[in-house]
Each structure stands twice: as C-alpha cells, then as structure tokens.
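retry 2 of 3: previous attempt timed out while embedding S-adenosyl-L-homocysteine. Reduced batch size to 1 and resubmitted. Inputs unchanged:
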Amino acid sequence: MRIDIITCLPKLLESPFGDSILKRAQDKGLVEVNIHDLRAYSNDKHRKIDDYAFGGGAGMVMMIDPIANCMEALKKDREYDEIIYMSPDGEQFSQNVANELSLKKNIMILCGHYKGVDERVREHLITREISIGDYVLSGGELAAAVVSDAVIRLLPGVLSDETSALTDSFQDGLVAPPVYTRPSEYKGMKVPDVLLSGHERKIQDWRFDQAVERTKQRRPDFDKE
Ligand code: SAH
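retry 2 succeeded.
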C-alpha cells in the first residue's frame, strides 16, 4: 500500500510516522508513506498557497492551483483508488472505513488548513471526504495521521501478533475485554482468577462475556440485530 499525504505543514507529520508501529511498517516495506509539501507546487514566487476569501470574511482559503499541480504530478505515476480530503463535514471515520481503506493500493490524502480549501477542489479533485469527529481541528494533518494509523495497523504483517488487530474493539461489533499484566496483585487489587488459571477455554469464554457486558454498558448503540 502507498499513502501520499499533501500538506502545507509537512513537519507536523514527521513524528506520527517516524516512530513505533508506523515506522516499522514502512521499514519492513509493508506500506510507503510520502509527505508532499504543497508549497513546492506553488507557481507563486513566494510559494503562496492561500489567499483571501472571495466575498470577504475572516480566514484564508487554500488555492486550487498548488493542490491541482501536486495531485497531477502524483497521478502521472500511478492511479489512485481514493483521493481523500480531511474535512469536519465529511463521512464519519470508523473501523469499517479503516477496514475498507486497508484493502486499497494507492491513497492520497489532502490536509486542509485555515478556512479550508477552495470549494472547486472538493467538487472536482476529491473522491471522498472524511471527518474524524464532530469537532474542528486547526489542520487536517492530525486527522490524516489518525486515519493512516488506523489503516496501516490493519495491513498483514504490521502487527507482530497476527490476530491482534482482529481482537481489538469494533472488529466484531464488540468493545475489547479488560486486560491485565504483572503483578497479579497490586496493593490488594487482584487480577481475575480465571486469567491466571491457564485454562484456555475458560479464558476465552470469560473474555467474550466481558466484551459482551462492556459493549452493553458502554456502547448500547452497537446492537447488531
Ligand atoms: N472552516 C472549516 C474548518 C476548517 S479547519 C469548517 O468550518 O468546516 C481546517 C482544516 O482542518 C480543514 O480543512 C480540514 O482539513 C481539517 N479538519 C478540521 N477538523 C477536522 C475533522 N474533524 N476531521 C477531519 N479534518 C478536519
């Protein structure tokens, strides 16, 4: 899989992709993440990428020209399955959307800033708009990192334990059961006996029951039937 992220603040994306699981996934060649600095595609001598909004009002708007230039350059080399604009009014991101995107080969993600991008970008250059929640961020970079992280950890081989992603919350319509590690007793707080029993079957049953119970309590909206 290849993810191309277009941003006017490339530095903001260095750390999320430069550490831990996302870094290892790239080192292993399981995903290629490329960050593109929008300013490099500006025709303006000051590398301008935004301008005042027509009709007035506060806030700058990202211009179509640099964005189109960057997208065209990328599309010359390969076809994209999705060209995503991160946007607070987009389709709500979820585990289902992450699962779906994890099956794609080439994804482009455009990060907005300021008041957002010229509407013509959204109308003509984008195939999909995704929001990570009903709140407004100052830029699309953190949102793009959230989407990329959720997608990349699903790619085969990225997580060391093959089944790990499958037993996470949401994958089976259930939230995850509680987990514990050593010590088995801390200041009088004990780990449930069953987890120390070594009885595989009982442990599985306990985890399933806990997941069902937690889902009922925390996410009654998950009722699948
Ligand atoms: N004026 C816009 C908000 C712009 S915020 C509005 O009211 O809808 C600047 C940029 O941050 C957006 O262009 C988008 O790329 C990103 N962004 C902000 N909130 C987001 C969210 N909840 N999900 C995804 N991207 C978001």
